[in-house]
Specification:
Chain B: It is found in: Cell membrane. The complex is a heterodimer of chains A (299) and B (366). By secondary structure, chain A is mainly alpha-helical. Chain A contains eleven helices and four strands, in the order H-H-H-H-E-E-E-H-H-H-H-E-H-H-H. The longest helix of chain B is centred in the N-terminal third of the chain and has 27 residues. Chain B has a two-stranded antiparallel ribbon with strand order 1-2. Classes of the chains: A mainly alpha (299), B mainly alpha (366).
C-alpha cells in the first residue's frame, strides 16, 4: 500500500512537471504557431542565473526562486524579440527551425561561457527533504511540485478567463487578425504569452535545480522533448490537452518504471515513446485535439 | 508571329524551370541535371584524391558521408516541407547493421560475445551485409513512416525526434548486440574516397530524379497547398511515406559507408550532433533543391573545419587563445537563425544548378 501510494505520488509529481512545461509550449503555439524548441534553454537561462547569483553570494532560497522565475520570463521575452519576431508570419517549419537554432546557440553559449561540465548549485537543496506523515515518508519536493503546479495552472486559468489580456490571448489563438482589429497590440499579446510561458519554465527550473543540485548546458533539453510529446498526445495547441498529456506521460513513465525489471530499466524512455507513437496511430490529432480542416490557417 | 511570341513569353514566365535548353524527355533532363549538380562534388573529390595529404582525405570522407545524409534529408524535407529531426537514427541503423554483420569473428569474440540470434558466430561479406542492413533500414522506415505520414507537420516532426530517441536508447541499452556506450570496433575498412564519390553521385542523381518525378512534383504540390492537391486526387500520405522511406534508405547508406571507412562507430555519433550539423547544412544551402543540399555541405564543411581549428585553441599574433568549446555549436545555431530570418530559401533558392546555368546562358545569348 505504501509502495503504491509512493508510486502514485511519483507519477503525479512527474506529470505535474511535464504539464507545466507543456503548458508553456502550448500557450506560445496556440497564439503564434511557433514550435518553441528553445523552451528548454529558457529553463537553462533560469537555472544558470540562479547558479551565477549563488556564486556571487546569494544565500536566500526565496530570492533565488523569484530570480529563477523572473529570469525565465525575461529570457522568453528576449528570445521572442531577437529571434522569433522576424519569423512571426513565416510558415511553421521556418519558426520551428529558428527555435531549434536558438536552442543550439544558447546551449553552446553555456558551454562556451561557463563550462561544458555540470556545475553544482546547492542553494535550493533545502526544498528537497523527507516529510513524515505518521508511517509515510514523502519527498517534500514532490508534494510541492504537485501543489505549486496545481496552483499555477489555476492561476493561469483565472488569468485567461478573467482579465482583458487573458481574453485577448484566448481570442488570438482563434483569430489573431480580428484581435488586432479590436485595437489590441499584437506585440503586447505575444510578449505576454512568452512571459507566461517563461514563468512556467522558471517554476519548472526551480524544481529541477532542487532535485539535481546542479546545472548543465543540456539541462532543459530532454525535459522539453518530453513536454513536446505531451503536447502531441494532448493535441498540439490545446492548453487542456497539454496539461492532460503531461499527466498521462508522467503516469506512463512511472508505470513502466514499476513494471520493468531492473535490468531493462534503460529501455524506459524508448518504451514510453513507443507507447505514445502507438497512441498517435489511433488518434493522429491527439487526445483532446480537434481534427482541423487543413488549409484553415492559410491566408 | 505574335502567337509564338506569346507562347514564348508564357514559357519564360510560367515555366522558367522547365524551359531547359537540352532536348529530350523530362527523364533525360533531370538525369543530366543531377549529373551537373554532382560535378562540383566530383571535382572537389578528385582534387583531394590526387593532391591532398592523408589527414584531409579523412576529413573529406566525413564530409562525403554528411553530403549523403544531407541529400537524404533533402529528399524528405525538401519535397514534403516537414522538418525531420530524426534522420540520424537511420544513419546509425545502417552503420550498426553492417557492423554486426560484417565484423570478423575474432573481433566479435572480443566485442559482442553474447550477441543474440547467432550474430556472434556470423560473418558475411561487406556487400551482402550492406544489402541486409539497408533492407532492415527500409523495413523500419516503412513502419515509422506509416505513423509519420499520417500526422500533420508539427506532430510529424516531434515523432521523428521521438524515433531518434528510441533508436539511440536501444543502441545504448541493448549492450549484448550494440555494445552500448562503448565504441564498436573492427569493422572491415573497405570503402575509400573513390567509392564514396561514386555513391555520392548516385545519391544526388537519385534525389534529383525523385524531385522531378511525378511523385516528387505531386508531393511538393501537396506541401504548398494540401487542399488544392487533395482536390486533384493526390494521395499526400502515400507520397510522404514514399519519400520518407527513400530518405531513410539514403541515410542508411551513408551510415553503411561511414562504418566501412571509419571501422569504429559509437552511438553518440548518430545523435543530436549529427542532426545539428546536417540540418544547418541543408538550411544554409536551401532545402528546396538538391543543389542546395550540395552547396550547404561544401560551404559548412569548410567553415566548420575552420571554426574547429579556432575552437581547439590557436595562437594569433603571439597570443595563445584558450580552448573555446562550443564555438562551432554557436556558429551552427547562428547560421540556422540568420538563414531563417533573412533568407529562408537558403543560398541556392528555388533553382537547381543546371537550371541556373541554362538560364544564364540563354540570357547571355540573347
Amino acid at each position: 500500500m505504501d509502495y503504491a501510494l509512493q508510486q502514485l505520488l511519483n507519477a503525479l509529481a512527474f506529470g505535474a512537471e511535464y504539464s507545466l512545461v507543456a503548458l508553456g509550449l502550448a500557450v506560445v503555439f496556440s497564439i503564434m504557431g511557433l514550435v518553441n524548441f528553445a523552451h528548454g534553454e529558457i529553463i537553462g537561462v533560469s537555472a544558470y542565473s540562479v547558479f551565477l547569483a549563488a556564486a556571487l553570494g546569494l544565500t536566500s532560497p526565496i530570492v533565488a526562486v523569484l530570480l529563477a522565475v523572473a529570469a525565465a520570463a525575461l529570457a522568453a521575452i528576449a528570445f521572442e524579440r531577437v529571434a522569433f519576431r522576424p519569423v512571426r508570419y513565416a510558415p511553421t517549419t521556418t519558426g520551428l527551425l529558428t527555435a531549434f537554432g536558438v536552442s543550439i546557440v544558447v546551449q553552446n553559449l553555456f558551454m562556451l561561457l561557463i563550462s561544458p561540465k555540470p556545475q553544482s548549485v546547492s542553494i535550493l537543496n533545502g526544498l528537497n527533504q523527507m516529510w513524515f506523515f505518521g508511517p509515510f515518508a514523502v519527498s517534500s519536493l514532490q508534494v510541492m511540485e504537485l501543489v505549486v503546479s496545481g496552483l499555477t495552472i489555476l492561476a493561469l486559468v483565472l488569468f485567461l478567463n478573467r482579465s482583458t489580456l487573458g481574453l485577448a490571448i484566448r481570442a488570438a489563438s482563434r483569430d489573431f487578425a480580428t484581435v488586432r482589429l479590436m485595437g489590441i497590440r499584437a506585440n503586447r499579446v505575444i510578449a505576454t504569452a512568452f512571459a507566461i510561458s517563461g514563468a512556467l519554465a522558471g517554476i519548472a527550473a526551480v524544481f529541477i535545480i532542487a532535485r539535481r543540485g546542479s546545472v548543465s548546458p543540456d539541462l532543459g533539453f530532454s525535459l522539453v522533448l518530453k513536454a513536446f510529446v505531451a503536447c502531441v498526445i494532448g493535441g498540439f495547441g490545446s492548453l487542456a490537452g497539454a496539461a492532460a498529456g503531461g499527466m498521462l506521460l508522467g503516469f506512463i513513465e512511472v508505470g513502466l518504471l514499476v513494471a520493468l525489471p531492473q535490468e531493462y530499466g534503460g529501455f524506459k524512455d524508448a518504451l514510453t515513446y513507443v507507447i505514445i507513437v502507438a497512441l498517435l496511430v489511433y488518434r493522429p490529432e491527439g487526445l483532446l485535439g480537434q481534427r482541423v480542416e487543413l488549409g484553415d490557417k492559410e491566408i | 508571329m505574335a502567337r509564338s511570341e506569346v507562347s514564348q513569353a508564357i514559357e519564360n514566365t510560367v515555366l522558367p524551370a522547365a524551359a531547359v535548353a537540352q532536348p529530350g524527355g523530362a527523364l533525360t533532363r533531370s538525369l543530366i541535371g543531377g549529373l551537373v549538380t554532382s560535378l562540383p562534388v566530383l571535382m572537389v573529390g578528385l582534387a583531394i584524391l590526387n593532391f591532398a595529404p592523408t589527414y584531409y582525405t579523412y576529413l573529406a570522407l566525413g564530409a562525403f558521408v554528411n553530403l549523403i545524409v544531407v541529400v537524404g534529408l533533402q529528399v524528405f524535407m525538401g519535397n514534403s516541407n516537414i522538418a525531420n529531426l530524426g534522420h540520424s537514427a537511420f544513419v546509425g541503423l545502417g552503420a550498426y547493421g553492417v557492423a554486426i554483420l560484417s565484423t570478423p569473428l575474432a573481433m566479435k569474440k572480443l566485442s559482442i560475445p553474447n550477441a543474440p540470434f547467432g550474430f556472434a558466430t556470423l560473418q558475411l561479406d561487406p556487400v551482402s551485409s550492406a544489402l541486409i542492413a539497408l533492407v532492415v533500414v527500409g523495413i523500419l522506415a516503412a513502419v515509422s513512416g506509416k505513423v509519420i505520414s499520417r500526422l500533420s507537420g508539427v506532430a510529424a516532426t516531434i515523432v521523428s525526434l521521438a524515433l531518434l530517441i528510441i533508436v539511440h536508447s536501444v543502441f545504448l541499452n541493448w549492450t549484448d548486440l550494440f555494445k552500448g556506450n562503448q565504441a564498436f570496433f573492427g569493422i572491415p575498412k573497405v570503402v575509400g574516397l573513390p567509392w564514396m564519390m561514386v555513391f555520392s553521385v548516385v545519391v544526388i542523381v537519385l534525389a534529383r530524379l525523385f524531385k522531378d518525378s511525378r511523385w516528387g512534383l505531386q508531393l511538393r504540390a501537396s506541401a504548398q497547398s494540401p487542399q488544392a492537391a487533395a482536390a486533384l486526387g493526390i494521395d499526400a500520405r502515400r507520397l510522404r511515406l514514399m519519400s520518407w522511406v527513400l530518405s531513410a534508405l539514403i541515410c542508411g547508406l551513408a551510415g553503411v559507408l561511414y562504418a566501412y571507412f571509419a571501422g569504429t562507430i559509437s552511438p553518440k555519433l548518430f545523435y543530436f550532433q549529427m542532426i545539428f550539423n546536417t540540418l544547418a547544412m541543408l538550411i544554409l544551402g536551401g532545402m528546396a533543391t538538391v543543389t542546395g543540399a550540395v552547396t550547404g555541405v561544401i560551404v559548412l564543411s569548410v567553415g566548420l573545419e575552420f571554426i574547429r581549428s579556432i575552437e581547439s585553441g590557436v595562437t594569433i599574433a603571439g597570443i595563445q587563445l584558450p580552448q573555446l568549446l562550443g564555438l562551432s555549436g554557436v556558429a551552427l545555431g547562428v547560421v540556422i537563425v540568420l538563414c531563417m530570418a533573412f533568407r529562408p530559401s537558403g543560398i541556392s533558392g528555388r533553382y537547381e544548378l543546371d537550371e541556373l546555368l541554362s538560364r544564364f546562358f540563354r540570357r547571355s545569348a540573347k
